[in-house]
Amino acid sequence: MLGDLSGKSILDLACGEGYYTRKLKQREATRVLGVDISEKMIELARQDETKEPLGIEYIIRDARELGEIGKFDMVVAAYLLNYAQTKEQLLEMCQSIYTNLKPGGRFVTLNNNPEQSLSSYSKTEKYGLIKKVSKPLHVRYTDRNDAHNRSRKKSSQC
């Protein structure tokens, strides 16, 4: 889905603690910038960057009010668009994405679909992505191909 990232500049919106941001950089992207609205998430991302430096920059910013912070070959937004509460907010996010893409650049996104059955997620297992949901609502995504993830469980609680 992402293709060859070597030599590419990538903007990771809603980067959270930088999990995917680091994956992008490890795939030989030249420049990766992580952006998240949460100061705490950026703090965690920066801590990981300090422990294992990859040359990633992180900034705290709302994706709806991003403005132009650079021109990127690719904008990645995992679990960003679902935060739009109105059509106007979704449009603001899309405008930020468009503003920061180079001509011919690519936008790649991943979102939950509330109407998608849990059984359909088994199709992603061949790519190493596993989704498990338990009660109370805990959603856990696991990349079974990632040694770092084996030692550090990632979960979101609603």
UniProtKB/TrEMBL annotation:
Any one Gene Ontology BP term: methylation
Coiled coil: none
Methyltransferase domain: residues covered: 10-105
Keywords: Methyltransferase, Transferase
GO molecular function: methyltransferase activity
Family matches, as SUPFAM superfamilies: S-adenosyl-L-methionine-dependent methyltransferases
InterPro entries for this protein: Methyltransf_25 (IPR041698), SAM-dependent_MTases_sf (IPR029063)
CDD domains: AdoMet_MTases
Name of the protein described by the UniProt record: Methyltransferase domain-containing protein
Organism of origin: Candidatus Kentrum sp. LPFa
